[in-house]
């Protein structure tokens, strides 16, 4: 198990290094990408831009710039006579603050959005899929899968404004979505995010319902399930203890990736509902040409996906020991 874990971690670190290098090349040395001019502003003279480039170190060879950026993540670095403590992701061109501090300020919003959405779509989606598999071919199965098809066909940029129009601006049943820290007011935290949660859950629940149903139906037809059924084991034990455990693998894979994507910033959801999370920060950084923030968000997303895959692999290893041999 230890060797399996070490292989996965080393592979994840190699992937992150490749992503970091390619992202650095894309954002900092691509044609037309003048970091010093973006940091200085549109009104700066060529002389001032050259001075800023020297202060930032972007007039150095590319390989040296990348090594300094990489070293700053682990040991910190000096930028324009200012020390940036590790893990240093640079300073924002827009607000001149450390990029890490800017992301950490936004992260609780994205984390809250992720937690609520995951609880809803995992509970409803898996439950609906299990019910549909148990009642295969019957009315409840057809109704549940019909909902899954309709829900999966929705788009956040369409469904979000529709929900806002119905529940906020027309009927005034709910207030405009907003973020309140959980420890400040848990009730206001939940009520302020319920509409974004529901919007994400409607779309994502459909995928979990269909995946759970297909996986459960497949496992229920396996030989070992028929064997324990022939030995007289009760339907509840067969369904939960054996069939559901066998169907967990694809669900764990999808869940790990979904959590990673949500944690890296649900850009469309946060933009539609005007939530100041990492996703909205990413969108604003593109509009402001804020390269350090853009690169940091890409690295955050990549790290979240790699970590999620490692966690999913570990879960697989416990579910199916044969995975450890891969």
From TrEMBL:
The record's listing under InterPro entries reads: BPD_transp_1_N, MetI-like, MetI-like_sf
Q: Which Pfam families match?
A: BPD_transp_1, BPD_transp_1_N
ABC transmembrane type-1 domain mapped to chain residues:
107-316
Membrane topology term reads:
Multi-pass membrane protein
List the subcellular locations.
Cell membrane
Record keywords: Cell membrane, Membrane, Transmembrane, Transmembrane helix, Transport
Which Gene3D superfamilies does the annotation name?
A: MetI-like (1.10.3720.10)
Q: What are this entry's molecular-function GO terms?
A: dipeptide transmembrane transporter activity
Identify the CDD domains for this entry.
TM_PBP2 (cd06261)
A GO CC term attached to the entry: plasma membrane
Bilayer-crossing residues are 9-29, 109-134, 146-169, 189-209, 251-273, 293-319
Please indicate if the UniProt record lists Calcium as a keyword. Answer: no
- Recorded superkingdom: Bacteria
Task: Please report which protein family the annotation says this sequence is part of.
Answer: Belongs to the binding-protein-dependent transport system permease family.
Q: What is this protein called?
A: ABC transporter permease subunit
Source organism per UniProt = Nocardia arthritidis
């Amino acid at each position: 198990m230890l060797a399996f874990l070490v292989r996965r971690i080393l592979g994840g670190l190699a992937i992150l290094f490749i992503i970091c290098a390619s992202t650095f090349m894309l954002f900092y040395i691509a044609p037309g990408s003048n970091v010093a001019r973006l940091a200085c502003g549109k009104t700066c003279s060529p002389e001032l831009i050259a001075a800023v480039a020297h202060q930032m170190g972007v007039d150095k060879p590319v390989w040296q710039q990348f090594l300094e950026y990489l070293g700053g993540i682990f040991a910190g670095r000096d930028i324009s006579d200012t020390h940036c403590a590790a893990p240093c992701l640079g300073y924002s061109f827009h607000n001149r603050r450390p990029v890490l501090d800017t992301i950490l300020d936004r992260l609780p919003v994205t984390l809250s959005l992720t937690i609520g959405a995951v609880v809803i779509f995992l509970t409803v989606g898996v439950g609906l899929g299990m019910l549909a598999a148990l009642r295969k071919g019957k009315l409840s199965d057809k109704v549940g899968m019909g909902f899954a098809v309709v829900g999966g066909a929705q788009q956040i940029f369409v469904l979000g404004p529709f929900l806002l129009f119905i529940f906020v601006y027309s009927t005034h049943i709910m207030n405009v979505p907003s973020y309140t820290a959980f420890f400040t007011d848990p009730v206001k935290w939940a009520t302020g995010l319920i509409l974004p949660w529901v919007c994400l859950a409607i779309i994502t629940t459909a995928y979990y319902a269909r995946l759970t149903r297909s996986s459960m139906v497949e496992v229920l037809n396996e030989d070992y399930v028929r064997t324990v059924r022939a030995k007289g084991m009760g339907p509840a034990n067969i369904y939960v203890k054996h069939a559901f455990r066998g169907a967990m693998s694809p669900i764990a894979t999808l869940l790990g990736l979904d959590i990673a994507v949500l944690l890296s910033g649900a850009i469309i959801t946060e933009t539609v509902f005007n939530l100041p999370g990492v996703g909205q920060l990413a969108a604003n950084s593109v509009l402001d040409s804020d390269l350090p923030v853009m690169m940091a968000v890409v690295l955050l997303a990549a790290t979240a996906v790699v970590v999620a895959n490692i966690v999913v692999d570990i879960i697989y290893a416990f579910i199916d020991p044969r995975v450890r041999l891969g």
